[in-house]
Amino acid sequence: MTEGAVSASIDLFLEDIRSGRGGSDHTTLNYSVDLSQFADYLAGLGVESPLSVETSHIRGFLRDVVGYGYARTSAARKLSAIRSWLRFLMERGELSGNPAEGIRGPKLPARLPRAISREEMALLLENGPQGKEAERDLAVMELMYGSGLRIAETASLRWDQVDLEERWIRVMGKGEKERLVPMGRFAVRALSNWRSSCPEVSDFVFPGSGGGHITVRTLHRAVMRSAARAGLPGVTPHVLRHSFATHMLEGGANLRVLQELLGHESLVTTQKYLKVTAEQLKRSYTLAHPRAGNGGADNEGDDDTLHSEG
């Protein structure tokens, strides 16, 4: 490989992504930006050929990227682009090894669980379930949101675990650990309606084929389908459970009580919902309070008036 081949090989890789591998324009653009930055970094070091690229060069580039203020997610994406480019050159027989393969990307911040608002949840439950499976789908979502059940716990739930009169569910959670979870009146009503309309007599609350319970995949599709109808794409069964936890904390629930309801082994797992609630409270405060520093024109005018009077 000749000297000065870094830019040429990047162009070749991008063309392969664009045409041969069917990459989207967005993906190609990101790769182009990331690899151009890396090429400039290499040029500053006097590295002109991919044959001369070393692991230390890549590590140094990533350190600079983070040092310049790029998010760690951006640095991880740039590493992925470099790794893919060098792998492409290996496939062509132009490199014998990939110096990026052994590099671990920057540790990414933990993703906070997503929760939808109470208004969106009401919209989902009222408008999502439709068609011949409407009663079933509503009962499923009332359980996941009303009692915080996991999707697998919902799928395998038996009628002998449910006490509609006392409003309790005996949930068999992870590691075969049992916990008692209360039900709200909406969940009780939805389950009662489903039990009356269910065309199949079964030990399982939500029967599947062959005498077993419904599959997790079927429940996942049911929730996603209902969410799409309600104009809430991307809402999954896990989002319903997160929303249960977040709304409970916003309503003043004790963290240890929530830990028990969710069936978490560690309180640390439950504490992540506090971060969600704090962010939502901060956002609501910033939008709602006239002196929260939101930068609105009206607020600025009020401040000027107050200062001039003082």
Overall average residue pLDDT: 83
Order of helices and strands: HHHHHHHEEEHHHHHH
Kindly state the number of beta strands: 3
CATH fold-level name of the largest domain: hpI Integrase, Chain A
What portion of residues is helical?
55-70%
Low-confidence stretches: 295-310
- The CATH top-level class label of the largest domain: Mainly Alpha
Question: What would you say this structure looks like, in words?
Answer:
The protein is elongated and about 75 Å long. It is built from 13 helices and 3 strands. Strand 1 and strand 2 form a beta hairpin. The chain folds into 2 domains: 6-91, DNA polymerase, domain 1 (Orthogonal Bundle); 118-286, Intergrase catalytic core (hpI Integrase, Chain A, Orthogonal Bundle). Mean pLDDT is 83; it is low at 295-310. With 310 residues, it is mainly α. The protein has helices at 6-20, 25-44, 55-67, 72-91, 118-127, 134-147, 151-155, 185-197, 216-229, 237-250, 255-262, 267-288, 297-309; strands at residues 162-163, 168-172, 178-182. Strands 1-2-3 form a 3-stranded antiparallel β-sheet, with no helix packed on it.
